[in-house]
Amino acid sequence: MGWKNVISFCPAPNFRNMFQLRPNEHMLECRHTIKSHGGQLMKNHKHDWLILILLVIIEVILNIIHPFYRFVGKDMMIDLKYPMKENTVPIWSVPLYAVLLPIAIFVLYYLRRKDIYDLHNSILGLLFAVLITAVLTDSIKDGVGRPRPDFFWRCFPDGREEYDNWGNVVCHGKDSDIREGHKSFPSGHTSWSFAGLGFLALYLSGKIKCFDRRGHVAKLCVLFLPILAACLVGVSRVDDYWHHWQDVFAGGLLVFPAPYDTEGWGPYAYFRAVEESRTSAQPSIVEDINNQQQQYRGNNVDSTFDAMESGIR
User: Fold this and answer.
1) Residues designated catalytic
2) How far apart are CA 212 and CA 162, in angstroms?
3) Is Zinc among the key words of this record (predicted)?
């Protein structure tokens, strides 16, 4: 009975509260915020931001110049008579979900963790991914000049066909419609969507630890939501008769390979987890190799390291 009274006066410690990470004043002072580290971080990456501005200028020029006007004969018009339709996904909405939506998620994460380095590098990586993809897409568009599926009605809005002596079309439609009609390959909507939303998917996979091998399928569902949205945008381009299916397929591939393993097809984190599992599954082999090396060296381990330090091989 005496021991019970002693124990009642000495309650068990609360280990949950003991090991719970609580931000103290020192930790709050060490947080990397926009006010404390933002200016210096921008200064250190000024060349990166200058390259981004250069990419924006190149992208504007690529949208101003005329594309290559490819030869389009009468026989080719058979596959180019689809009706002209409005965009299901307006062009003004593409930067909203491909750029501003990921940035909004980055900002929410920053408000929670106060890590300006994560915010800055995430925005910088996103803008590089989208702008490089955009420059590649529009460069190929202007160089190839493939007609869109609705090119017939862009070229002949009244339905009266006209061809020159060589059999090439003589369009009498609006100049803006004709110019836009030669920008089918590859799909810009699709490439922008996969660049922005694909980057967001990789960002989320790292933050929620999709490849931690704990079997949480819900994490993979969150990861695939941006990819699914990008796929649906590509499907809408075919349904609107603005692109052939090959254009959409090529636009989706322009952003790959991303931060992937050099010898694999998936994200680096996945292959790192696989490599760690293989290493842990063969401890006996590693131990045998270490034992054999130790036996071979014998008692001359110190002399071997001394020779290596002195440059003897």
Assistant:
1) 189, 243
2) 63
3) no
